[in-house]
């Protein structure tokens, strides 16, 4: 047993060392997929961790009650809640007014809450800059302040009254900007807006005519039972509050995570696309490797290795690469997560993804191994199952003969003729090219779609940054960059193998009188032919993907953009092929004929 | 030196293709090789020598007939059993050596011992011993690319001997070698013959006859001649044209 | 044979037995087959032709192998012209070829059987020569001669195979 293990390890290590380029290519391809998946999963943490930290730091309530009624009615509705079963502590009720805030010429909805200077037992907003409320001053929720560009010491006006900004703070009792829950006094509609705090004594003056609303923070004996508490409170016969007027901390946490959710969806969908791309890339590399290893398969069998042993020797290599790639992908994703995707400024704390959660490790490893196995199993099994004699003869699968293409190509100019025949030789490789361009184009088009969405982000009166769109854009950018790198790598590998494989037929074509230029162009044509359907299908696929993933009014990018994308992809492939093709076309024919096996 | 029958075939047949493309690579041949015999199978290119050897070693399955090795039918064995057979009882030597390029000479030799589940230490000892036997201990740590053709073939022979096979099957072992390297390999085979190793060599190199006890001539898949050669004639040698 | 003996005397005069052992060394295993008396017969003929002279050595019985032989000027000349000569011994295939043709036309024997018998004989010789060459103790210079013999015999075998193919084809046609 030890001997066989030694043998497997030895062959594995030697093989990895002998072909460093391919090893690195495989690592990169699988890492790209696992890294993106990790990034997507890490966003989960980003969505929940900061809220938890903020909730702990600010003594966040378990349930927040905000009746739609105003004035004394509201206070009457809230009073019984403070003594309801399960409630262990409360703070408030605090008066709330839905006003308009103007700063630096920008106007936005503001939920104004009146607070005492003394710390409350529940919901003590954590001051991140400056001081807590005093009469005559205002404290802004940090994300809101950031969006407006307001700093401590600035002056803002609330419904026309100038107030000094005393500081910024964060809370866990209300969803952060822009979902603070601004309710128009004359309609029940909730609109976007940010939260500010003023002294309890100042709020009446600020609200003016507007009746005050009230909000009450409750602490429960069992925070996990918050939903049950809400159900009982809103359905009991003696209820004073109605459905929708009580909010649990879980609801707030979910809402706070929402800006990240779309970005997460982008990355998760993206990681699937990358997985396909990675499989395509790995398949390409593995096909080259396994065909190089065919003779070894035969030899192992001749000295008495069974099919299982042969498969193990070859699979082990890719499993090791897969595991390594899972590690690097995990590390890359986790390292990149905090810098690429900032947690909301409306929450406290940093995202800490180290050590990674177990499920992330499992997911990344599973994905990496799946890619490795999916791409390698078929060729390895095929190799292990070929007859020993056949494998020893090292007969590469003979090129396919496609009658109609040969017939067709006879009627075309020499370069096209060469291209079509080379293309017809290796249908599987041609399919990889199609797949590669299909996915690249799909993502590029989806990216374009995202750009084309010119959604106004209405904050009552002026347009501010939408944190959700901002994060989606970030995620899209990350995805596009990773994907383009991977696609380029795939294309490079594919071209490289195509060039190697076509060396001999090209040399023969040249002995028959084809010029180097015709040979080079022919090779480029061979790579372009399968790319065209990929690009053509990628455009509707990208449009469709975006349409399915996003809701509501979609705007389409101009046709010229789509056309430019398509041409760009094709151009990139041409350029990638042309360089090596020209290089081999420059070599003397006799050299090629001598150095390649028949 | 020869004993009971080690390798036998009855009505052994291998056909390729069908209809007008039918090729009878091996056509109902009967064969019996006693233990310790060195058998040379000769014949023109394409007469079915390699196919015969592959059938005898369980590398290929016959389309008809039976093969016995050490009294066991091998033509109907499972793939697993065949793998074990090749590991334990048969050593192959090929025209193009088929060494693993990434393994050193000694690592190539110990390959089958490791596959057979021997401990790495014992496998290494045995491999070094075999390399010594083929006169290549000083090249043990060289990669095949750093060895000459004759040396590679000797490494391959050492590998074939690794598990003390019942029979060594060699297919054109000198086909890629020049005359000096051929001599090295022939000497090695001669030593094996003296040591009583059963050996079947397929070739169209008549020099192999020098180390054979028996020579079979094949043509179009059938045996046309089977001559037992006087063993180790050391009498006067004439060059035959004076 | 005469030329070889003359050339061996070119360096310095030598005893008959010295000449003989030099020959044997150069021929290696093939030298064993050399007839001992042959060299003295040759020397006697050369002396008659005036190519060598011989002297009795002191204190030794007067036997051909104890005499010291030396080249005469005529002998010297003959050695030089021998070295410059480029003629090559012809393998005598004609006779065997004609044997086959005669056998076939006169229906004396089956040419294929003749070829087969001849092939066995050549094969046996090849095998002996190759065996001799395999011996690791063979002097490399002598081994060279063996290699030449082997190569020649292999060529003969190939030719015999061609003969066999030809005559088998003829037979078949004749039979059909
Ligand atoms: N896979 C195959 N499919 C069809 N025919 C085959 C196959 N393998 C071998 N043959 C045919 O079987 C016959 C015998 O082949 P084999 O390789 O055994 O010959 P050989 O005597 O070893 O020749 P050589 O001396 O050239 O190696 C040949 O006519 C060959 O064309
Ligand atoms: Mg063969």
TrEMBL record, chain A:
Keyword line: Cell membrane, Membrane, Transmembrane, Transmembrane helix
Which residue ranges run through the membrane?
24-43, 265-288, 309-337, 357-381, 430-449, 475-500, 521-549, 561-585
Main subcellular localisation:
membrane
Kindly list the places in or outside the cell where this protein is found, as annotated in its UniProt entry. Cell membrane
Annotated ABC3 transporter permease C-terminal domain residues: 270-385, 478-584
This protein's source sits in the domain of life called: Bacteria
Its membrane topology, per UniProt? Multi-pass membrane protein
Stated name of the protein = Acidobacterial duplicated orphan permease
- UniProt lineage: Bacteria, Bacillati, Actinomycetota, Actinomycetes, Pseudonocardiales
From TrEMBL, chain B:
Which keywords belong to this entry?
A: ATP-binding, Lipoprotein, Nucleotide-binding, Transport
Pfam families hit by this protein: ABC_tran
Q: Cytoplasm as a keyword?
A: no
Q: Name one GO molecular function term.
A: ATP binding
Q: Where is the ABC transporter domain?
A: 7-242
Q: Which InterPro entries match?
A: AAA+_ATPase, ABC_transporter-like_ATP-bd, ABC_transporter-like_CS, ABC_transpr_LolD-like, MacB-like_ATP-bd, P-loop_NTPase
Is the keyword ATP-binding in the record? yes
Instruction: From the Swiss-Prot or TrEMBL record, give the protein name.
Output: Lipoprotein releasing system ATP-binding protein LolD
Give the organism, scientific name: Kibdelosporangium persicum
UniProtKB/TrEMBL annotation, chain C:
Entry's PANTHER family? NEGATIVE TRANSCRIPTION REGULATOR PADR (PTHR43252:SF6), TRANSCRIPTIONAL REGULATOR YQJI (PTHR43252)
Q: What is the protein name for this chain?
A: Transcriptional regulator
Q: Which InterPro entries match?
A: Tscrpt_reg_PadR_N, WH-like_DNA-bd_sf, WH_DNA-bd_sf
Q: What is the lineage of its organism?
A: Bacteria, Bacillati, Actinomycetota, Actinomycetes, Pseudonocardiales
Provenance organism: Kibdelosporangium persicum
Q: Where is the Transcription regulator PadR N-terminal domain?
A: 5-79
Superkingdom, natural source: Bacteria
């Amino acid at each position: 047993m030890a001997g066989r293990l030694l043998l497997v390890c030895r062959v594995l290590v030697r093989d990895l060392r002998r072909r460093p380029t391919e090893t690195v290519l495989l690592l990169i391809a699988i890492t790209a997929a696992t890294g993106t998946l990790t990034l997507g999963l890490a966003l989960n943490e980003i969505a929940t961790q900061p809220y938890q930290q903020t909730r702990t730091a600010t003594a966040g309530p378990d349930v927040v009650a905000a009746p739609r009624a105003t004035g004394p009615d509201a206070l009457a509705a809230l009073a019984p809640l403070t003594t309801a079963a399960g409630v262990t502590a409360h703070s408030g009720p605090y008066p709330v007014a839905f006003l308009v805030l103007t700063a630096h010429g920008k106007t936005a909805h503001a939920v104004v809450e009146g607070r005492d200077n003394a710390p409350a037992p529940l919901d003590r907003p954590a001051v991140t800059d400056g001081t807590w409320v005093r009469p005559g001053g205002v404290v802004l929720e940090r994300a809101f302040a950031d969006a407006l560009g307001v700093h401590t010491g600035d002056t803002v006006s609330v419904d026309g009254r100038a107030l000094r900004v005393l500081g910024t703070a964060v809370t866990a009792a209300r969803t952060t900007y822009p979902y603070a829950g601004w309710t128009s006094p004359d309609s029940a509609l909730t609109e976007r807006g940010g939260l500010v705090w003023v002294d309890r004594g100042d709020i009446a003056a600020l609200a003016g005519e507007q009746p005050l609303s009230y909000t009450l923070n409750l602490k429960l004996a069992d925070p996990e039972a918050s939903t049950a508490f809400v159900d009982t409170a809103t359905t009991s016969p003696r209820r004073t509050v109605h459905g929708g007027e009580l909010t649990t901390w879980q609801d707030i946490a979910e809402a706070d995570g929402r800006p990240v959710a779309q970005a997460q969806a982008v990355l998760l969908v993206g990681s699937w696309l990358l997985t396909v791309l990675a499989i395509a890339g790995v398949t390409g590399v593995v096909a080259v490797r396994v065909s190089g290893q065919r003779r070894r398969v035969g030899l192992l069998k001749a000295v008495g290795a069974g099919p299982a042993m042969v498969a193990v020797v070859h699979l082990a290599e890719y499993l090791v690469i897969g595991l390594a790639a899972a590690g690097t992908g995990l590390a890359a994703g986790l390292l990149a997560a905090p810098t690429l995707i900032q947690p909301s400024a409306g929450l406290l704390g940093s995202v800490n993804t180290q050590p990674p959660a177990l499920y992330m490790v499992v997911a990344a490893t599973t994905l990496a191994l799946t890619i490795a196995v999916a791409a390698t199993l078929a060729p390895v099994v095929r190799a292990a199952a070929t007859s020993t004699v056949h494998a020893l003869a090292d007969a590469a699968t003979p090129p396919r003969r496609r009658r109609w293409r040969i017939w067709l190509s006879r009627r075309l100019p020499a370069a096209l003729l060469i291209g079509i025949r080379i293309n017809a030789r290796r249908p599987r490789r041609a399919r990889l090219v199609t797949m590669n361009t299909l996915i690249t184009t799909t993502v590029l088009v989806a990216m374009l779609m995202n750009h084309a969405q010119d959604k106004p982000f209405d904050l009552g009166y002026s347009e501010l940054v939408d944190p959700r769109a901002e994060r989606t854009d970030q995620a899209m950018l990350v995805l596009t960059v990773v994907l383009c790198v991977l696609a380029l790598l795939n294309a490079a590998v594919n071209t490289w193998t195509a060039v190697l494989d076509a060396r001999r037929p090209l040399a023969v074509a040249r002995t028959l009188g084809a010029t180097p230029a015709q040979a080079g162009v022919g090779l480029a044509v061979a790579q372009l032919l399968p790319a065209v359907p990929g690009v053509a299908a990628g455009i509707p696929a990208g449009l469709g993907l975006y349409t399915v993933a996003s809701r509501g009014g979609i705007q389409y990018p101009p046709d010229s953009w789509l056309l430019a994308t398509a041409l760009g992809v094709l151009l990139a492939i041409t350029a990638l092929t042309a360089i090596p093709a020209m290089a081999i076309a420059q070599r003397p024919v006799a050299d090629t004929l001598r150095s390649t096996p028949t | 030196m020869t004993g009971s029958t080690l390798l036998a075939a009855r009505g052994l047949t291998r056909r390729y293709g069908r209809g007008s493309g039918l090729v009878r690579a091996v056509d109902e041949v009967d064969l019996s090789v006693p233990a310790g015999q060195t058998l040379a199978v000769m014949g023109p290119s394409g007469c079915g020598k390699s196919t015969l050897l592959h059938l005898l070693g369980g590398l290929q399955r016959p389309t008809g007939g039976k093969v016995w090795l050490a009294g066991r039918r091998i033509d109907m064995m499972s793939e697993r059993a065949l793998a074990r057979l090749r590991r334990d009882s048969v050593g192959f030597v090929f025209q193009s050596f088929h060494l693993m390029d990434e393994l050193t000479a000694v690592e190539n030799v110990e390959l089958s011992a490791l596959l057979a589940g021997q401990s790495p230490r014992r496998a290494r000892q045995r491999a070094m011993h075999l390399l010594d036997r083929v006169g290549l201990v000083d090249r043990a740590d060289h990669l095949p690319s750093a060895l000459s053709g004759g040396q590679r073939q000797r490494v391959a022979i050492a590998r074939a001997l690794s598990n003390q096979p019942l029979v060594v099957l060699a297919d054109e072992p000198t086909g890629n070698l020049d005359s000096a390297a051929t001599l090295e390999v022939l000497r090695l085979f001669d030593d094996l013959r003296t040591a009583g190793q059963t050996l079947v060599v397929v070739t169209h190199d008549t020099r192999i006859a020098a180390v054979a006890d028996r020579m079979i001539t094949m043509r179009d898949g059938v045996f046309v001649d089977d001559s037992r050669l006087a063993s180790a004639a050391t009498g006067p040698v004439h060059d035959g044209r004076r | 044979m005469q030329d070889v003996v003359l050339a061996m005397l070119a360096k310095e005069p030598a005893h008959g037995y010295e000449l003989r052992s030099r020959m044997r060394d150069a021929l290696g295993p093939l030298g064993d087959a050399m007839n001992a008396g042959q060299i003295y017969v040759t020397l006697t003929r050369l002396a008659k032709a005036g190519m060598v002279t011989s002297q009795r050595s002191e204190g030794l019985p007067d036997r051909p192998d104890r005499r010291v032989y030396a080249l005469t000027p005529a002998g010297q000349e003959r050695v030089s012209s021998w070295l410059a000569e480029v003629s090559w011994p012809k393998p005598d295939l004609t006779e065997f070829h004609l044997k086959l043709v005669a056998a076939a036309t006169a229906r004396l024997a089956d040419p294929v059987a003749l070829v087969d018998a001849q092939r066995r004989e050549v094969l046996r010789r090849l095998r002996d020569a190759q065996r001799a060459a395999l011996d690791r103790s063979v002097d490399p210079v002598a081994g060279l001669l063996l290699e030449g013999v082997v190569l020649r015999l292999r060529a003969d075998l190939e030719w015999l195979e061609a003969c066999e193919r030809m005559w088998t084809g003829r037979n078949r046609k004749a039979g059909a």
